[in-house]
Structures are given as structure tokens and as C-alpha cells.
Amino acid sequence: MSQNVLVVHGGGPTAVINASLYGVIEEAKRNPEVGKVYGAIGGTGAIFSETFLDLTSFEDDKLKLLLHTPASAIGSSRYPLYEKDYEKMAEIFRKYDIKYVLLNGGNGTMDACGHIYEVCRNLDIRVVGIPKTIDNDIAMTDHCPGYGSAARYIAASAQEVGEDIKSLPIHVCIMEAMGRNAGWITAASALARRKQGDAPHLIYLPERNFNETEFLEDVSRLYEKQGGVLVVVSEGLHNANGESIVPPIFKTERAVYYGDVSSHLANLVVKELGIKARSEKPGLCGRASVALQSPVDREEARMAGIQALRSAVEGKSGVMIGFERIPGDIYQIQPKLVPIKEVMLYERKMPDTYINERGNDVTEEFINWCKPLIGGDLPEFLNFRDYI
Amino acid sequence: MSQNVLVVHGGGPTAVINASLYGVIEEAKRNPEVGKVYGAIGGTGAIFSETFLDLTSFEDDKLKLLLHTPASAIGSSRYPLYEKDYEKMAEIFRKYDIKYVLLNGGNGTMDACGHIYEVCRNLDIRVVGIPKTIDNDIAMTDHCPGYGSAARYIAASAQEVGEDIKSLPIHVCIMEAMGRNAGWITAASALARRKQGDAPHLIYLPERNFNETEFLEDVSRLYEKQGGVLVVVSEGLHNANGESIVPPIFKTERAVYYGDVSSHLANLVVKELGIKARSEKPGLCGRASVALQSPVDREEARMAGIQALRSAVEGKSGVMIGFERIPGDIYQIQPKLVPIKEVMLYERKMPDTYINERGNDVTEEFINWCKPLIGGDLPEFLNFRDYI
Question: Are A309 and A27 in contact (CB under 8 A)?
Fold first, then answer.
């Protein structure tokens, strides 16, 4: 009897989630115990509609494109799951001779992974989680595949826009980074700097309550000194009551809609300080950029896919692949297995030691932790202003 | 007596303006008739403060970084110029033995170029314009250095975000492109498509009056059919009265401030159609991206710098370097000299034949015109949804 694999993607994609998928397929192809790798085309909903595609049937030349394809090549979903769904899933797995179920996603997906593990544990169907999130908010791992590329994107963008502002220093520019509750991506913009005074000049994270007065003081002081100012802010900035700093624009029966933090703050600078300001919100561009993939992130994502299938074949179940950093001067990680119930629904935020006292920048400790993840130095630029 | 060159940058930078600067310096180094190349550090204002740096004193290994450095390596400005300024400039040029004045910029800079030419014409000081704008709105040239890279950026971003939306088709996404009065950049997003149905699904240009009812009809129809929809819009969309489609947020004594077109339209989709929507506004990222420079654009920008100095040395003055496309199946251009007064302050918009009848897309004719400028095909992606 063939022992097939099912891969399911959940939640928002990253620049390297397909590299993990590639890792699963390459491991399956080299392991004679493993049959087909099915992709659930469209996330968890595809399990119930049995929309499975045999990915092992594709040539490797074609499959290699996965390493440089952003978004999810098998589709994803935010389909909510209930207890009866899990029972139904187990039946479908048996119908397709699926012995290995690999779920690749963030906190919500790891929660589903735990539930699926529960219904499959007596059926000899093994369930392993592959972490994926640009937000880096999954617990029990040094960092998460997808984050390094989002970090490289924001660092490179801050470096480039910083160069633009330095060359035409007429405004304050507010750049918005993804990550609503955790500031990991916003913080990574600090990697744009090569020397004292380089952009970004201010960084505001959702781990701190936003103080409008201090923000305006900081911006005003820097603008007086140098002209152009680049501020990087998290999309999730909130006040001391935990409310968004942007007033709600309108409400529907289901949700409240807020404007963008970046344009809100740019408007505030114009209104309160009378300084020209503008906002940039690369948004989804920041999780879908192939040109700014981190090569380290890509290889780690691929390795997580390989390890997930290998662990399942070795009999592991109810676990997620995590990364452990090996202490030392040279960056090295090793995979580890984390019990899925220790991961489920816990949101990991930036520790205090990564944020400066005033809450408008990161610390050297954060920079040292983050630097290897973006996969190599950013390009060197030539600016003649540095020579006068 | 040495015959020096002065290079001045004006207005907003592009991803390849420094490639033109490199072209000037390399041409100067190989021409024994030419002395130093001074860079005016900080735009036209630097002429009056005599903030000049001798760029020929740098090693070529260092200077080559200019080809891959975004923004302006010598700085730029939006300093307004008056008649008495031009007279003063001529004195300073003589003080520094400057025989060749090269101004690199957009429409405003070409206007200044014309005025400087007037005061220098009897002094044997030659004045040549190098066109530069991401907006592609300079007249009398097939296209303009800086545009090809901005076009590649928006096309690649639309392709990547399109892939993201296709993989998790839960929302309408409105991406905002730069170019307030001319839709060239917005239009270039169409180059993201490889096959029927690919993103972007709708494109709205400032050459047409924006019709809200038709926009909502278009979005609604596509969302019904396919789920995720990517719309690319110009930052300068306006109604039939020429007013911005975004209501003013607040006014100061000097200016009226509007919100972003992209977030305005995303909010409209949520409110009027009850469909989840979000906005992306890469903004300055789109003119500063090194990773998405068009190699064709870079080489043409460099060539424009070389030609500008060469023409000045040959005795030309009061002209701008333009590009003429050589008819034929293979893309080729040749430089031409355009009298500066034919260029000054004329804003070039997209012709009617480049826009479809409903005003929600571009035509095949535009795509054929634009395609060679982005410098090679965008990457191929693998999406398994195409196989079911």
C-alpha cells in the first residue's frame, strides 16, 4: 500500500513558503517508503472538496521554480475549522492512503494541526507542522521561515527610501511595516543602517504604547537637524488603552475599519509640525518579493519541509519543526521538534531587551540576533554627500 | 585652461539617475579636452553656495557603484529659480572654469536648463539637458531614463501581489502607482500578465475622468467571478471636474492635503460592496529599488550622460538628449538632440490609443511599446492552481 503525503497551507503566504513545499517533494522523491505528495489546492477547505493534485508527478525542473515563486503555489485559506471537520478529515486521509499530513502555516494553522493530530493519533496517520509566518510570532523556535525575507524586504526598502530622502531632504517619510501585534518586521528595518545617522531614524513598535507627544518631539528634533527623516512604524501601533492610534473610519456589522497608521502619522506631522510629510505602505509587496528573498530564509524553509516529512516517516507526530540557534560567532541553526500543544495559539512578541528605553528604536542585541537571517549584506551605495 | 563640467540634479530622483552621472564621468575621463567633473552637491542651490565636489578624483571601482545606487548621489533640490539667479550662476561657472553645464531632471529642470542656456549663450558655456523622470512625461523623446525602472518595479510588484491574491483570494487589493498627471507608470503594471486573467485585473489612469459607479461595477463583477482582484490606480485620479477623487483631509495656508487614492478606494469597496479590501502604496520604494532596476533603462541612462557631455564638447548647447526608436521588430533606440525650448514645461500624457474604451485597462499597442523598456521578462512562477 502506498503511503502518501498531504501538504496543506494555511493563512497568509510568505516569500518562501513554496521552498518548504519543494523540500517536502524532494524528500518524498528520494524516500522509497513514501508515495505521492498531494497538494490541497486552496487550503484546508480543499480537504473536504478533495481537491488534491499529485505534485510528485511534475518534473524537477518545473518544481525548482517553487524556490523562487512567492505566495502559495497550492493556495491557502482562512477557512474556520470545527470539531466535526476534524473527524471528517481523518476519513478523507484514509480514502487517499495519506499517512503523512503536513500543515504549513502560522499560529492558527498550528492550532488546527494540534486538533488534526488528536483525531489521527490512533489511526497511524502522522501529523507534523511546518512553521511559516512573516510576522515571526510563533513560539518555541528561534525564528520562523518567512520572517528573514520580510526582514530583508523592509531593511532594503528603508535603505533605498532613506537614500532617496537623503538626496532630496524635503520631507518626513513614514513607512508602514506589517505585523499587527509583534514588531519583528518593523524592527528589522534597522538593518538598513551602515553608519551613524543612516535611515531609518526612528522605529516605533507595537510592543510599546505609542506616545504622540514624544513622537512629534522626536520627528521635530531630527527634521531641524538633518532635513529628511525616515520613520518606520508597525501597522498595529496603539495607545495605552490598547486602541489603534488611528480613529475608526467606519463600522460595518462585522468589523471596524481603521485608516492606515502611516498616512495618519504623516497627516499628524503636517498638521502639528507644519512639516511636509508623506507615507509609504508597501503592504503585500513586502511578503511577496522574490528579488528580496533572503537566501538564508529560503534554504531554512526548504530544510523545514525536508525535516517535516523525514520526522513523520520516522514516526513522529503532533510536533512542529523548530529552529535552535547553535551558540557561537558563526550563525548556525539546527532543527528541533516542538510538541505542537506548546506552540498552539501563543503569540511571540519582541522581548524588552530588543527595544531601546525611549521606545523609538531597537537595540544592538536585536540587530545582532536579526542580521544573519536576512541572508547577506545589503548593497553598498555611493553618496557624495558623505565626502563634503 | 582646463574646461570643466558641472552636473546638477533637479527634482525627485529615479533608480538610474546616477547611471547618467556615471556616463558623464566616464566620458570626461576619456576625453583629454575635458577637465574636472564637478557635482553640485544638493541641486541648484549648491551652485550659489559653490558646494562643488570633483567627481573625477574618485577611482573607477568606487564610481561604478553609481550604476547600482538609487536616489541622487550628488543630491537634488526643488529650489525655485528667478531671473537674477541665472545671471549669478554664469559668474560662478566662469570662476570655476566650467565650460559644460549638464542639468539632469524633469520638466521643471528642463525649464531651468533653457534659462541657463540663455544667460550662457554668449559666454561660450554650453548647456545640455539630460532627461530624467519616473513619470515619463517629458516631451520630444520616445521615453525617458528612469521610467523603465519604475515600470519594471510596478509590473513586478503587480505580478507578485497578484500571485499572493490568487493564492489567498479573499480580498480586493488596490495598489497605488506614482504619476499624478500622466498614467505611464500605472499603465506599466499590465506587463505583469503572462496569460488571460492574470493580475492586474483593472487599471485606472489619470488620463480619464474616474467614474465611481463603473469602478464599483467592474470590481464587483470580477470579485463574483474569481475572488481576489488586483486593481492598480494612479495617485492622481480625478473626477470630471478635475478634482481629486479623495475628499481633502485638511488645509493649511499653503496647501490642501488629500488622503491616499488607494486607501480611499479600498474603503469605498468595503462600504459600498461589503467586500473585504486593502490598499498597498509602495510610493518612494517604486523609484528607489535597485533590485528592480531595468538593465535597459540603466544602460540608456548611462548613454544619455555620455551623449550629453559629448554633444556639449562638440559645441552643442540649449539642447536635451532625446531617444528615437528605430522602427523594426528588434528594439533599438538612437539618441537625438532636441531644442530645449521645445521641451520646456510641456507635460506628455498617454495617447488615447494606449487606453481601452472603458478606461479600465491599457491596449495591446501600449504593451508592445512598453515591453522592451523594462529590460527582460519578469520571472516565471509555478502555480498549481493552473493545473486543476
Answer: yes
Residues from chain B contacting residue A78 (CB–CB below 8 Å): 168, 170
Distance of alpha carbon A224 from alpha carbon A274, whole angstroms: 12
Residue B198, chain A, CB below 8 Å: the answer is: no
**B13 vs A contacts (CB less than 8 Å):** 164, 167-168
Number of CB atoms found within 10 A of residue A157's CB: 30
The 3-state DSSP class for residue B247 equals: coil
Decide if B382 and A73 are in contact by the 8 Å CB cutoff. Answer: yes
Residue among B147, B146, B150, B192 at smallest CA distance from B378: B192
Taking the mean position of all CA atoms in its chain, how far away is CA A337? 20
pTM: 0.97
Cell, residue A363: 537595540
More confident residue, B203 or A79: B203
Q: What ipTM is given for this predicted complex? A: 0.97
Mark whether B135 is an active-site residue: yes
In degrees, rounded to 5, the angle at the alpha carbon of residue B12 between the alpha carbons of residues B7 and B15 is 80
Rg (CA), chain B: 22
Q: CA-CA distance, A101 to A315, in Å (whole number)?
A: 12
Say how far apart CA B292 and CA A72 lie, in whole Å. Answer: 22
Residue in the block written with cell 536585536: A366
B122: distance to nearest CA of chain A, Å? 32
If DSSP codes are grouped into helix, strand and coil, which group holds residue B103?
Answer: strand
Residues of B in contact with A40 (CB under 8 A): none
Q: What is the pLDDT of residues B329-338, one digit of tens each?
A: 999 999 999 9
Q: Helix, strand or coil for residue A256?
A: strand
Q: Express each pLDDT in B129-149 by its tens digit.
A: 999 999 999 999 999 999 999
